[in-house]
């Protein structure tokens, strides 16, 4: 079972307006759509779509939290802990040209609520094989919140994938998360003294994070694909052609691919192939956190495994699993 | 007792952001504030602040409706009817320079829910002396919704104040609402063939609406104050000096002043004096639908009763009541 943890789950709300957004005027909203959002819930939804055994946990608060719970797809098991403050909304105003985003800060979590969550998480992570920790921390949580969750997962022998940035990431590295997935901007922010502009720079920066505690660094570089860097070597994978669509949530689809590959004991090249194909399929889907299974299966065969270095030797990729 | 009717009540949400709004980018929201809003609830809140006996009714739906109910001030009596669809939010993004508004359309009300509301309203309006009907109609309601409410109030011998525009106003006029309160733009839209640019034009346009069924037309003209036009004559009142502040909700404060004046049997000049003073006091208050009682009392003495014509003769104003 894969456990996904959404500490700062969001109600993703879209305001559809018929004219371009105009600062300092008023706009009639034609239609309001809402979905259960946040990175970890996007990952959980995609894993569920692929038929994987997944359980979603995290914190939900107030009326917005109840709305989020009501929008989780039927059949996707979840076990959220309630907090008193309101869960956040992530509002996108979609006009005919493009989208404008407004991100609320999130529910202010008390010490007692966090302690209650740790109890719930200790139980769930004891029956999980893979734990996905992703997204920002809501106000009120200690900066080492992810460090605590990585430590508990390790004691429970679950493999951790951590997708966060900034001080939350730095605080968690000493607890040795098994996989971290920074994107290019997050990698550059985490290792500011190195140039991450080319493949060699990304590998060098990733090695800094390996020395800080990460088991594997999977750097996501948008349309240029992924580079996974471990102590043993590094692999890179990219879509065969540029995918045009909605890139929101592509990173969450990537994490779903990595979690699935780890659950099924795949080697790194296969994990990357799946992660790139799921990211590409999510770009094709109009809504963040969704994929069409047929897109995924079709794209998986086309992923370009470009670089493949083990113990400083290039080797060929003979693996292929679904 | 004054009954206020909020058919399209709103959760007024403000996103406070630290940088100017920038189309097609993303913004971190520093703080989210919320209030129970919509025109009728603003009017009710001000009447309650002034110590008047007021009851608020209308339609509330879903989680947003429950949030609105939870934000109605303690002690302000209310009796709302629940509907299945979500009540609307009125979102203002406040940046350091100015505000940008996004108005959701509102809950889609079913025929059965409207029928249930009419039952509730029939009872409440039977014990009301004044009924305030204000704001837009939510989707799903018949365009003659206000016409139905005016008719029921008349049968119950309650005086009606109607503050709406467009086709909802036109549909209600044949039922003879006692007072309507168009602002300059709404008056120009309702009587498009007349020039409402000066006082005489406003009086002429108002007389068109009197002939269509209105008992009195109170035209609100922002900083230029009010003109009340009846079959017997017309009166105008304006603030002594321009008031700088937040004009949102000033029209709702004006309606509160009119409702209070009618409840206490004041003559038109006193009603206008109170309505102008409450509008001005609401402009001074930073939040829509709020006034400081001291501001109101101080401003009431300064209102300029400029024009005062009864049966085509100018007369002096000797009335003053609180």
TrEMBL record, chains A, B:
Molecular function as annotated in GO: ATP binding; phosphofructokinase activity
SUPFAM superfamilies: Ribokinase-like
Gene Ontology, cellular component aspect: cytosol
UniProt keyword terms in alphabetical order: ATP-binding, Kinase, Nucleotide-binding, Transferase
Domain Carbohydrate kinase PfkB: 20-285
Keyword Nucleotide-binding annotated: yes
Xref: Gene3D superfamilies: 3.40.1190.20
Family annotation (InterPro entries): Carboh/pur_kinase_PfkB_CS, PfkB_dom, Ribokinase-like, Tagatose/fructose_Pkinase
Superkingdom classification of source: Bacteria
Family as reported in the entry's similarity comment: Belongs to the carbohydrate kinase PfkB family.
NCBIfam families registered for this protein in UniProt: 1-PFK
Name the record gives this protein: Tagatose 6-phosphate kinase
């Amino acid at each position: 079972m894969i456990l996904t943890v959404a500490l700062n789950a969001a109600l993703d709300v879209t305001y559809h307006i018929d004219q371009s957004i105009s600062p300092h005027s008023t706009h009639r909203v034609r239609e309001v759509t809402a979905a259960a959002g946040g990175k970890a819930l996007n990952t959980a939804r995609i894993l569920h779509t692929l038929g994987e055994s997944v359980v979603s946990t995290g914190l939900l608060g107030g009326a917005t939290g109840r709305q989020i719970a009501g929008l989780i797809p039927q059949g996707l098991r979840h076990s959220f802990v309630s907090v008193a403050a309101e869960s956040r909304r992530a509002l996108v105003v979609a006009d005919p040209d493009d989208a404008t985003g407004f991100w609320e800060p999130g529910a202010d979590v008390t010490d007692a609520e966090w302690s209650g969550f740790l109890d719930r998480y200790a139980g769930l992570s004891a029956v999980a094989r893979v734990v996905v920790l992703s997204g920002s921390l809501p106000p009120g949580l200690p900066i080492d919140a992810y460090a605590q969750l990585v430590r508990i997962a390790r004691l429970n022998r679950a493999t951790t994938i951590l997708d966060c940035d900034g001080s939350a990431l730095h605080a968690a590295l000493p607890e040795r998360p098994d996989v971290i997935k920074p994107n290019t901007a997050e990698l550059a922010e985490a290792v500011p003294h190195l140039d991450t502009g080319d493949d060699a720079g990304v590998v060098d920066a990733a090695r800094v994070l390996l020395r800080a505690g990460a088991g594997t660094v999977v750097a996501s570089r948008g349309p240029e694909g992924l580079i996974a860097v471990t102590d043993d070597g590094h692999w890179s994978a990219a879509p065969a052609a540029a995918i045009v669509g909605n890139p929101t949530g592509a990173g969450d689809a990537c994490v779903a691919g990595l979690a699935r590959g780890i659950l099924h004991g795949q080697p790194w090249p296969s994990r990357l192939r799946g992660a790139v194909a799921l990211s590409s399929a999510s770009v094709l889907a109009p809504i963040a956190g969704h994929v069409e299974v047929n897109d995924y299966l079709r794209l998986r065969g086309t992923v370009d495994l470009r670089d493949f270095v083990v113990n400083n030797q290039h080797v060929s990729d003979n693996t292929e699993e679904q």
